[in-house]
Design brief:
Layout (H helix, E strand, L loop, with lengths): L1 H9 L6 H24 L15 H13 L4 E2 L10 E7 L17 E5 L9 H4 L2 H22 L11 E7 L4 H13 L28 H5 L17 H14 L6 H11 L26
Antiparallel strand pairs: 1-4, 2-3, 2-4
Helix pairs in contact: 3-6
Length: 292
């Protein structure tokens, strides 16, 4: 195996950039496989994962769990406050498109609010960032709600049908948590999910020919998003089908118990349990002979 690796390594200067990248990727994958094979030769088991509080994924999971432990409050009752962090918005209304998640523990949108200075030590130093984000979303929902009611559109969004959780965090902790929340819940309004994104988009169409976001196609009312020069990013019918398919493929968390279990499972390690009773040998700790 070493000879084969040396032979492939010697080809480096003669490989094209594309081929070099491909070979390098295969080498790294092979290294992971070899570590797994080597582990099977050791009679002493090693955990496949281990708990590291300093790891970004672990930190994100912990912050996300802390967010879920917060009380849900009506979005229209969120008061001004200092602090940056993470938040989740929930839908509890009767819009048929969002019926699968209405009243569930799966948010329709999650996000983060960065502090106004990265070195902020206190919520006051972070500014009103978390409140500002929620206030912005609240304004967008109220805008499209008013338009729908004025034009007698069916199934208008109503601000009273939204709730939220928010968590003020130490500066920079919000970055890890947002990524974990998006991966876990796949909120239908988040851009990363690529289904009905656009609520966070602002009127930046001047001098551009941007497409109208799926969110604005389904929920019209923002003036800048209704300009004639804009075209729909996707037909409304396709967006509706995509949302329905998304909820079928990603069933919501119906209650808090299943949600808490999902968080607990994310910390679970291999129990490393033997099939039969284990016979201890005649050695003490660290492999040293036991005292008589």
């Amino acid at each position: 195996m070493r000879d084969a690796a040396n032979e492939l390594g010697s080809l480096g200067p003669s490989l094209t950039t594309v081929m070099s990248t491909r070979v390098r990727r295969e080498f790294f994958a092979l290294l992971e496989d070899m570590e797994k094979f080597a582990a099977t030769l050791d009679p002493i088991l090693e955990p496949k994962v281990w708990f590291d509080p300093a790891d970004q994924r672990t930190a994100g999971n912990l912050v996300a769990a802390a967010l879920i432990s917060q009380q849900r409050v009506p979005l229209d009752l969120v008061q001004r406050s200092y602090g940056a962090g993470v938040y989740a918005i929930y839908y509890v209304g009767t819009h048929p498109l969002y019926a699968p998640i209405s009243g569930s523990e799966t948010p329709i949108y999650v996000g983060k609010a960065d502090p106004q200075t990265t070195m902020a030590k206190r919520p006051r130093d972070q500014g009103e960032k978390l409140y500002g984000r929620l206030s912005d979303h609240r304004k967008m929902i109220r805008t499209v709600s008013a338009y729908a009611l004025d034009h007698n559109l069916p199934n208008p969004l109503r601000i009273e049908d939204f709730e939220c959780r928010r968590l003020v965090t130490a500066s920079n902790a919000q970055m890890f948590a947002e990524a974990h929340l998006i991966t876990m819940f796949k909120p239908v309004w988040n851009a990363e999910t690529k289904i009905c994104w656009g609520i966070s988009k602002h009127g930046d169409t001047d001098g551009r020919n941007n497409a109208r976001s799926p969110w604005d196609v389904i929920h019209p009312g923002r003036k800048w998003a209704m300009l004639d020069k804009l075209e729909d990013s996707r037909p409304a019918e396709k967006i509706l089908r995509d949302v329905a398919t998304h909820f079928q493929e990603n069933p919501p968390f119906d209650n808090r118990d299943t949600l808490i279990k999902a968080f607990m499972d994310s910390f679970s390690q291999d129990p490393m349990i033997a099939a039969n009773a284990v016979e201890d040998d005649e050695k003490g700790e660290e492999g040293t002979p036991s005292s008589p």
